[in-house]
Design goal:
22 strands, 406 residues, elongated, five-stranded parallel sheet
């Protein structure tokens, strides 16, 4: 059985290694000068390769088409991946939120492990697949910049369109579409949010916040809220909370964003806290009192929005002014925010329609002997190791079934 794998990322390497270990003759084409190029920058170079899901189900963290993954994930779940790591001597550690990283904190060690799994696979670098060769409704090989290569099965695992400098330029979409597959419009996922009105965040640029809530309010007044850490950038907001929010809102038009700086306190409790601070520090200026509640670099922006002066004494603040301050603390609004460009995304939402792929085998329902794995499929997860695990488990499924049968 001859199998061609297109793409040398985690999905492609896992598919190639699985097919080879299942007895197939495997060739992997990678257009870059090395495999795993995108893996080297994931998790800030540390590679968050999975999640233990101790705080919930794996599928609760899949944004689009979670049901499609039931079979492939259950066949290669968290425990199976940990056993795989042990077998190939990749030491891993678990951090906050169930995130799993190599103990060395080096993404390159994950790539080395996947390459070791591909022992015997013919990995051909600097070669781009530009065509699928079809005969009588079956894929029979691929066309490359060095000519045709014939095979019994072909696995497309060349990623999405996020981080195009790593080679993710949508080749898989082009190949799939050329043989009749439907491509769900690729959109950015896990990206910062940017604004055309940077003046509204200029005062707080560079400020990092923990334990806050950001709510996206849509034109139809529906909302989505995320909690956690965020960062004000030069042109918008970023951080774990924002990346997660971006994946949940990428199909809806946002009216505005609302930041709650004290989500653990409802308005009544926070008002009592303000009143107590004002009574206990009646002769102090507002800027000094708010230092007990907010980071120093945020105080001026909050006070300005509340229509107050930094130097006003607590005993001079009226009840109405305190209510205005309370409102800003619980509802600090940002306008004209949109998703950053898809090239800035950690992953791509969209891709080959899951309706046209067998969820157990990853085989195309449109073209026989054609398989898919990884980000090229219309499935994406939240930050925390879910997307790499999607790549790995779909790679296992594609490699297993592509190496069997006719």
């Amino acid at each position: 059985m001859k199998v061609v794998v297109i793409g040398g990322g985690p999905a492609g390497l896992m598919a190639a290694g699985t097919a080879k270990n299942n007895g197939a003759d495997v060739v992997l084409f990678e257009k870059n000068e090395k495999v795993g190029k995108k893996l080297y920058i994931t998790g800030k170079g540390r590679c968050n390769l999975t999640n233990s899901c101790k705080n919930g189900s794996f599928f609760d963290n899949i944004v689009h088409n979670s049901k499609f993954l039931y079979s492939s994930y259950n066949n290669f779940d968290y425990y199976a991946l940990i056993e795989f790591c042990k077998k190939y001597n990749l030491s891993v550690k678990e951090e906050r939120g169930g995130r799993v990283f190599p103990t060395s904190d080096k993404a390159s060690d994950v790539t080395k492990t996947l390459v070791a799994y591909c022992k015997g696979v013919n990995i051909i670098l600097n070669t781009r697949v530009n065509k699928l060769l079809i005969d009588d409704g079956k894929v029979v090989g691929v066309g490359t910049n060095y000519g045709a290569f014939y095979a019994d099965k072909v696995i497309i695992a060349c990623g999405g369109i996020s981080y195009p400098v790593t080679g993710s330029t949508g080749d898989g979409y082009t190949l799939a579409k050329s043989v009749g597959h439907t491509i769900i419009e690729p959109k950015p996922a896990l990206v910062p949010l940017i604004t055309s009105k940077v003046e509204q965040i200029k005062e707080v640029e560079g400020l990092s916040l923990k334990n806050v809530a950001v709510t996206a309010v849509f034109n139809d007044k529906s909302t989505i809220t995320e909690f956690g850490e965020m960062l004000f950038t030069s042109n918008g907001i970023s951080g774990p909370l924002v990346l997660t929010l971006s994946s949940r809102i990428n199909e809806k038009k946002t009216d505005y964003l609302s930041i709650d700086f004290k989500p653990a306190l409802n308005e009544e409790v926070l008002d009592k806290r303000l009143l107590r601070e004002f009574n206990e520090n009646s002769n102090k200026s507002l800027k000094n009192i708010l230092g007990n509640l907010l980071p120093k670099s945020l105080i001026e922006s909050v006070v300005n929005r509340a229509g107050l002066s930094l130097d006003v004494k607590a005993n001079a603040i009226t009840g109405e002014e305190r209510k205005n301050l309370l409102k800003i603390l619980k509802d600090y609004r940002l306008y004209d925010f949109n998703l950053a460009d898809v090239s800035a995304g950690i992953v791509t939402a969209g891709g080959v329609s899951v309706k046209e792929i067998n969820p157990k085998t990853m085989e195309s329902k449109t073209v026989k002997n054609l398989y898919f794995a990884g980000e090229v499929i219309d499935v994406d997860g939240l930050t925390g190791g879910y997307n790499i695990h999607i790549a790995l488990c779909t790679g296992v499924a594609a490699g297993k079934y592509a190496s069997e049968g006719e």
